[in-house]
Amino acid sequence: MASRIAVVALWAEDVQAAAHFYRDVIGLPLAPHHSERPHFDVAGTTLTILPGHPISPEQKASARFPMVAFAVDDLDRAVQRLQAHHVELPWGIEGDSTSRWVMIRDPAGNLIELVDFA
Questions:
Q1: Exposure winner among 1, 49, 103, 117, fewest CB in 10 A?
Q2: What is the pLDDT of residues 86-111, one digit of tens each?
Q3: For domain 7-116, is the CATH number 3.10.180.10?
Q4: Does the pTM of the predicted model rise above 0.90?
């Protein structure tokens, strides 16, 4: 049986802009073998950016369901970093009794979530 997710792939028309976003805004380490398909290590799972067209929000079953969610240790610090890079926070910081999160769009339009399981 599967024990963990090995690879998550997102599509972007501008692969370099998406790679910049995940490296410089989200803070993921770029793998040395990235070539024209950037690969990032996320605690043993690989995130790769592929050239292509992302699914538009109109085509998704829910415009508020993220393509991928990243766990962060300090959501407030993550939000400060996003704001420093002028990333729009369309719904602001949200939360419930077990976690707090913020959903954003990457440069390709993929919905991404940063979540703090405090």
A1: 1
A2: 999 999 999 988 889 999 999 988 88
A3: yes
A4: no
